[in-house]
């Protein structure tokens, strides 16, 4: 399992990034990770079933606010004459071997990383046959800096995988059902608390240091040192402080602790989705690529599972797999 910081999709994104992220800097990292991903790659994007839930749980405006790419997915469904379930079944059962049709099927099935994977296997002439909005979306995502694409999809492409497993997503928000609208008020109330102010100061310093480390790794043409250091226990503990702090703010509503509970619920959903993905190849080797704040929780959950052995990311970046 590899913990990451979320890399900005473009140079205008406010997430952690450097102006240029050359492919060459990722190659040593992909070389090191490839032996540990021979049976699948999992990324922190919402699972198709979660997208389908939110699509059916409210109006279209609410769904597209959560997933801005849904209009293109609906366009793919219209082009194919299929709904979500039919598209998913056709994609998973190998109904076709045509890369452009598989990209369209995956998008219609709300399987975004798999759609990008098959789009990368589609040549320019074939791409022109897709609906304009779909073509623009997949072209943009294929060039994304985001780690789910730049590491997850590209590794799956290199290894010849049929899909990339999106494992994030639950059917709940940041607070318990019926209280989601109070999230903004909660953070407005606790932001003046000394413990929360201390957290913000430490987090700003941490992010500045990570930005410097990332830029240094990119300049050397090798991202392995950055990810190796980033996955060290001490660094992960720094990131976990954001959740531990919510036990120190003592909000009268109890919503600070409820926020932690919902974070755990999200991680449990991710663990469930990951375990379902593993069932596709029992005993196989899978790379799990998630935001570092998820990693300690998933490590704990995975250690309780039967027939699952986890490999520390630092070890994975230095050694070949056993067996």
Rg from Cα:
20 Å
Strand order in space, largest sheet: 1-4-2-3
Helix/strand/pairing category: alpha/beta
**Total count of helical runs of at least 4 residues:** 17
The rounded distance between the terminal residues' Cα atoms is 18 Å
How many strand units? 4
How are helices and strands ordered from N to C?
EHEHHHHHHHHHEHHHHHEHH
Oligomeric organization of the protein chains: single chain
Q: Report the biggest beta sheet as strand number plus sense, adding barrel if it closes.
A: 4 strands, parallel
Shape: globular
Mean pLDDT: 89
State the low-pLDDT regions, or none. Answer: 10-14
Strand content: 5-15%
Helix content: 55-70%
Give structural notes.
The protein is globular and about 60 Å long. A four-stranded parallel sheet has the order 1-4-2-3, sandwiched between helices. The chain is built from 17 helices and four strands. Helix 1 crosses helix 10, helix 5 crosses helix 6 and helix 15 packs across helix 16. With about 325 residues, the protein is of the alpha/beta class. The longest helix has 27 residues.
Layout of strands and helices, then pairs:
Elements: E1 2-4, H1 23-33, E2 40-46, H2 48-57, H3 60-66, H4 70-80, H5 84-92, H6 99-108, H7 112-119, H8 124-127, H9 132-142, H10 147-159, E3 165-168, H11 183-190, H12 194-220, H13 224-230, H14 233-244, H15 255-278, E4 286-291, H16 295-303, H17 313-316
Parallel strand pairs: 1-4, 2-3, 2-4
């Amino acid at each position: 399992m590899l913990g990451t910081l979320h890399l900005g999709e473009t140079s205008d994104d406010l997430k952690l990034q450097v102006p240029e992220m050359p492919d060459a800097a990722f190659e040593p990292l992909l070389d090191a990770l490839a032996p540990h991903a021979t049976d699948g790659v999992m990324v922190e994007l919402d699972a198709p079933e979660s997208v389908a839930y939110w699509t059916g749980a409210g109006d279209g405006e609410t769904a597209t606010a959560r997933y801005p790419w849904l209009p293109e997915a609906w366009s793919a469904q219209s082009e194919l004459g299929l709904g979500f379930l039919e598209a998913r079944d056709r994609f998973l059962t190998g109904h076709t071997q045509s890369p452009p049709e598989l990209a369209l099927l995956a998008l219609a099935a709300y399987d975004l990383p798999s759609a990008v994977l098959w789009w990368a296997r589609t040549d320019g002439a074939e791409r022109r046959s897709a609906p304009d909005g779909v073509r623009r979306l997949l072209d943009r995502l294929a060039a994304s800096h985001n780690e789910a694409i730049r590491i997850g999809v590209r590794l799956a492409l290199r290894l010849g995988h049929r899909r990339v497993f999106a494992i994030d997503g639950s059917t709940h928000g940041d607070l318990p059902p019926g209280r989601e609208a109070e999230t903004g008020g909660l953070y407005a109330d606790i932001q003046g608390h000394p413990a929360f102010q201390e957290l913000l100061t430490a987090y700003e310093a941490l992010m500045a240091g990570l930005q410097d480390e990332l830029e240094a790794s990119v300049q050397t043409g090798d991202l392995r040192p950055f990810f190796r250091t980033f996955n060290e226990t001490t660094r992960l503990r720094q990131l976990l402080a954001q959740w531990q702090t919510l036990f120190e703010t003592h909000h009268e509503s109890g919503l600070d602790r409820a926020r932690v509970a919902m974070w755990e619920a999200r991680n449990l959903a991710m663990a469930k989705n990951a375990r379902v993905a593993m069932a596709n190849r029992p005993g196989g080797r899978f790379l799990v690529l998630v935001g570092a704040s998820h990693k300690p929780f998933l490590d704990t959950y995975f250690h309780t599972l039967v027939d699952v052995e986890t490999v520390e990311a630092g070890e994975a970046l230095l050694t070949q797999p056993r067996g």
